[in-house]
Structures are given as structure tokens and as C-alpha cells.
Amino acid sequence: MAIVLGIDTGGTYTDGVIIDLESHKILAATKASTTHRDLIVGIRNTINQLDYEKLDALDYVALSTTLATNAIVENRGCRVGLLILGFTPEKELPPCEKAILPGIMDIRGSEREPLDLDATKAAIESMRGKVDAIAVSGIFSVRNPEHENKVKAMAREILGLPAVAAHELTTVLGMQERTVTAVLNARLISVIDELMTATKNALRERNIDAPIMIVKGDGSLMNESIAKERPIETILSGPAASIIGATFLNHAENGLVLDMGGTTTDIAILKDSRPRLDTEGAKVGGWRTRVAAAEANTFGLGGDSRIYQPYQSKHLQVGPRRFWPVAVIARDYPYYLTELRQIWDRNVGLIINEPCEGYFLLRDPDPHMELSKTQRQVINALREGPHTVVELGKMLNVNPNFILVEPLLDHGILGGIGFTPTDVLHIDGTYEVGDKNASLLAASLMARQRDIDTDKLIQIAKDLITEKMCRVILDSILEYEKTEISPFYEDDHHPDETMEFFFRNSVWNQKADLLANRFELQMPIIGIGAPIRAWLPEAAQRFHTEAVFPPHNDVANAVGAAAGKVMTIYRILVQNHEASGVDIYAPWGRIKYEPTMETVGEGECQILSNDNLMILAAKDIIAEGKKRIAEEMKEQGIEDYEILVESKEVRSGKDPGEVVKIHIETKIEIIAVGHPQWSAKGAKAK
After folding, report:
1. Angle between the 436-450 and 454-480 helix axes, to the nearest 10 degrees?
2. Whole-angstrom Cα distance, residue 67 to residue 194?
3. What is the pLDDT of residue 684?
4. Where do the domains of the chain lie?
5. How far apart are CA 388 and CA 353, in angstroms?
6. What is the pLDDT, as a whole number, of residue 518?
7. Which residues contact 18 (CB under 8 A, 6 or more apart)?
8. How far lies 679's CA from each of 1, 68, 175, 363, in Å?
9. How many CB atoms are closer than 10 A to CB 491?
10. How far is it, in rounded angstroms, from Cα 559 to Cα 8?
11. Which uninterrupted H or E stretch holds 257?
């Protein structure tokens, strides 16, 4: 058997599953609350809750984590020194110490300006004690990485710190995006290293001595050593894991995969059992990277999304911010319900917050963070536990409407408490893990402030959640089809008026007098996540399609982590430069094929045609690439794998009708796909 433990750390829950990959059986599954102060506590709790006696016999552990994504969004990570070769950035970069140095390669990989080794050494020395890791990014390094490799080696030798070169992370052109990727990767080295160390400690406590594999943004797995070198590749692994989990559990080939968690909803389109990859590179925290990731849309809609009326708005809104449900907080801190009852008795009205809302302390602020006097008082008041905004006003002797803590929420110092979809489900009895009375009182407080009855408030909330789910579904479909319009709005982002008309007419059944239309999704919606069964059926019905719920859909991300495969891809470009020969741009460097002679008859030679030279170069580099990729798979401990080669010739003629076209370039992908060590039966190459 091949027994694997899959773990997924989400914004609300940390899921764990144990799977027999050969029989596709789920042997154990559980959920534990994600502990934001220390993610390892949630991982440890998940492992301890698994009802499985043979944890010490696991073949490997697969981890899908939001840690890298969260660190980028929250601007966390180690101190980075950036060595830039041959160009001056015109756009903003992530926080770093930087030095701009000589050393230019051109687009064909030829050196246009040599490195200045003395200046480079001085720049590296100037960063001593100021940085924890080094990133090196040179212009056109994907065409020739020689400069980057030399500078990276110098930095490691001089400072003894981890160092990364931009060309190691991507072979795609784009100097700004490649530099951003390198800096973010360096910032994450310590983050992932700490996660790996802590996870191994948690596993060791249960006598689990198994290798750890990490899910990448494209859904494939990498081993611990590669994850420590290239932690940036773990961003957006959650959506990728949910897609793989859906295909594993449901054997789906086509469908819209909708993963609703506590904080967000992730949507991806599955065709022929595969998601489409984002060709531009994943975008996280406002930074466009060159990291390959599954093309997925993430929206601020989850079981714990805040339901409230924004200041100066006339309508309730759901999300995008996550608030902890009143029901859950009142369960853990019963005095919170007492505070809500006091608000009911006093009939307190608020402007910024809903009357049921409050805060609790997640972590202490960084020492250098600028805080107002009131914000510091709020932090101190919450050290013993959560409180409503009204109670905080009493404790601090200030008007609760003047307690403004948005920066503390943005930086993850405080967590918000409020009315959420989870509370709605508590009220109607669909889901009960907390205090139903607290949810009902929260709804009643919000209803009284609007002079409506509680039942109407609850129905408005249900409609809001369903409508937003329909909007994000349609938005994802339109994004997949590469349209420029959106039916989705939030805050100041309003939809296209024509799209809004058709959305209201078709999906939301607000029929026009003269025109009727119908949106019909041509594939099922595959529902993933703990709260999904409560909300998806009506949304699917409005798109006239089927809602499918795979078994164990509430832990599908952890299933996806466990069911992933290791995949390594080499992207190689062979270019025809006619009189000067052929250039090959491979991940390991630039190779030049000069014009050469070929024998055409006895004693006769002629210059080998560039077309034949291109064919020869492609054949040679494919052989070399297969050899190198096999070695890399072996280094990862993968013995059961296959190697696939895909190549595409690009030809062009001077005139559109020209029959014989010039062979411009050949794009080659060498792909190795395999299982971790558990199924090793000897390497095979195809």
C-alpha cells in the first residue's frame, strides 16, 4: 500500500487526511482550527485528532500551506539584499537593500558589459549584518545566466548566507517580474525553513519519520530541499490542491471547481482533468511574479466573511474581510454573549460597526509600528480576551464610534468578531459548533438598528451570500473566456452596466419587460469546502447546472496535497540566427552552434543548412535535457517517473503565400512526472 498524510493549512481550518493512494481510499480525516499565532499548533492538533493507529508507517507527508502567500500579503519575511546587474528598476520592488552593478547580457545571451568584480565585492560587503539572504537579478539572465551565477557564488562565499539567482526561478522574460520573484523568494527562505523545522518536530512527536513534500502553485509536489531553495513556488498552492483533490475524489474531467473556505472562495475551471496555468505568472499581495500557478480566481467570500453595512452605504455587504463568527467567540468566551445582552438592553447605536461586533488580540504589534494612543489602549484592553466595541468604549471611556482599528486588522494584530454566514447557518440549524443564541441575538441587534424584524434580516443575509456566489462564478467564467467585463463589485468597483442588466435578468431572475435571457453553464459545479453544501445548490440552480459534492469534499485540499505528483519542467528555446548559427537557451546556460560543414558526396562538403542545424541542435539539447532532468528527479528521491518531450517549431516566410518558410525557432518542453519514493519500481523514461 501507499499510505500518505495530507495536510492543508487554510485561513480558518487545518485539514488532515490519510489516504491509500493505490486504492483511492480515505482512511482517516479531520479538521482543526488554524492557529494564526503559531501554525504548528494547528498542524499538531490535526495530526493528534486523526483516528489512525499506524502513523509511524506513513510513506510520506504532503503539505499544502498558505504561509508563503500570507507572508507576502502581510509583508513579512527576512531581510533581503538585492544585487541588480545591468539595469535600474523603474517600478517599485518589495522591501530590500539593493545595489546596482555593472554587467549586461543582451537578448541573445552575449555579454555587452562585463562584471566589475571589485565593485560587486564591495556591494556585497556593504550588506553584511543588514540582510539575511541575497537575491541576484541580471538583465537577460534567462538567455545567459553566467553573470548571475558568478555573483551568487561570490555572495555565498563572502557572507555565508542563502542566495538565489533570478534565472533559477523562471525562464520567462520580464526583468521587473523576475526581480520581484527573486526578492520575494529570498524573503521567504527563513519562513519556509521555520515551517519545515516545526512540521518535522510535530511529526517526530508522533514517531512519524517520513519525508515531507510541499505542494507548488501548479499543483505538483517538491521535496523539502527544493522548497527551502525555492519557497516562492508554494504560493497559491491552496487552489491547486483543491483542483487535484476534486479530480481525485470525483474523477472529474470537466467542471467549475468552487472551493469555499472560511475566508475565501477559490474558483478554477477544470478541462480534460487539468486546470489552465496562468501564463503571466501568479500575482500575490499586489506583486506580479513569474511563478507558474493554476489559473484560479480568489474572492473574499467564505463561511466567516463579515456581514455588515459599510459607512455611508445604504446596503449590507458580505466580505471581503474575515471576521470570527459571534457563535464561535461566544462558545469560547461566554461573557461575550453577556456583553451582547447588555447592548440589547441599552439599545446602543453605532455608525462604523454593527452593534454585535468586537475584536480580539491575535499578536503583539512590531516595535517600530506607529500606533495611536487609542490603538495601544485597545491592544492592552484585549490582552485578557475579546470584547464588543461597545464594551471597549466603556473600558477606555471613549465613544465606541471613535475606536478606529483598521490598521490593526490589516496587519493581523487584531481579529474582528461579527455576524457571518456561519452565524446564519447556526440560526437555521444547518451548522452548529458554537452558541446559536449568540448568533440569533447578533441578528436581532442588526435588525433592530434597521427597524426590520430578525427573520427579514436573516433572509437578506442569505440572499446576499447567494448573490455574491453567483457573481463570483460568473466573474470567473468571464475571466476564463478572457473578457474585459465583470459582474462583480465590491467597495468602489462597479460592474459594467450591460453585464449588470444581464446578470439581474438571467441569474437573479429580475425579468425585463421585453427581454428574457438565460445563462446556462455547460459543465457541473464541483463544490469543495466545509460550508459549501449550504450555499452552492441554489447558485448552481440559477446557472441551470448540477452541483456536485465529492465524498470528503470538506477536506479536499488535504486530499489534493496527498494525491499530487512530482513534476519538473525544463523550458528550452532554440533560435535560428542564420549567418551566425543557432543559439540554445536552456535553464543551465546558453549553447552556441556555429555554422558547420556536412559531407554531401565523395570528397564534397558544403555548409550545413540552418534548418538542418536547428534540427541537430534540438536533438542534442533534448538528449542533454533528458539526462539532466533524470538526475534532478533522482536527487528528489523519485525513481518511478516518465519523461515527456513536447516541441513546437515556429516558421515564417517573407510573403504570406510563400511555401518554404524559414525555421525561426523551436520551443521545447521536457517534462518529468513521477510519484514519490513509495512506489519506486525503477526509473523509466519515455
Report:
1. 90
2. 11
3. 37
4. 80-186, 305-460, 566-679
5. 10
6. 80
7. 3, 4, 5, 6, 26, 27, 28, 29, 50, 52, 58, 562
8. 9, 29, 40, 43
9. 9
10. 9
11. strand 255-260
Show Cβ contacts of residue 643 under 8 Å, excluding neighbours closer than 6 positions.
Answer: 626, 629, 630, 670, 671, 672, 685, 686
Decide if 496 contacts 504 (C-beta within 8 A).
no
- Whether domain 80-186 has CATH 2.60.40: the reply is no
Tell me how long the chain is.
686
In whole angstroms, give the CA distance from residue 582 to residue 538. 59
- Among candidate residues 329, 378, 333, 315, the one with its CA nearest the CA of residue 357: 329
The amino acid at residue 358 is: G
Q: What is the pTM of this model?
A: 0.78
Is 402 within 8 Å of 307 (Cβ atoms)? no
Q: pLDDT value at position 320?
A: 87
Asked whether the beta carbons of 436 and 426 are under 8 A apart, the reply is: yes
Helix (H, G, I), strand (E, B) or coil at 193: helix
Q: Are 668 and 645 in contact (CB under 8 A)?
A: yes
Give pLDDT, residue 490: 47
Residue burial 294-310, b: 16+ Cβ < 10 Å; e: rest:
bbbbbbbbbbbbbbbee
Question: Do 487 and 505 form a contact (C-beta atoms < 8 A)?
Answer: no
pLDDT one-digit tens code per residue, 297-353: 888 899 999 999 998 888 899 988 899 999 999 999 999 999 999 999 998 888 889
pLDDT of residue 656: 55
* Phi and psi, residue 539, nearest 5°: -60, -45
Cβ distance 42 to 14 under 8 Å? yes
- Measured CA to CA, the distance from residue 622 to residue 633 in angstroms comes to 16
> What pLDDT, on a 0 to 100 scale, did the predictor assign at position 238?
80
**CA–CA separation, 660 and 317 (whole Å):** 62
Helix H or strand E encompassing 59: none
Residue ranges for the chain with pLDDT beneath 50: 490-493, 599-600, 679-686
Contact 245, 563 (CB under 8 A): yes
Q: Which set of grid coordinates corresponds to residue 150? A: 558568478
Q: Please return the burial class of 572, using the count of CB atoms within 10 Å of its CB with bins 0-12, 13-18 and 19+.
A: buried
| pLDDT value of residue 610 | 74
Specify whether the CB–CB gap between 221 and 237 falls below 8 A. Answer: no
Please, which residues bridge with residue 221 across strands?
215, 566
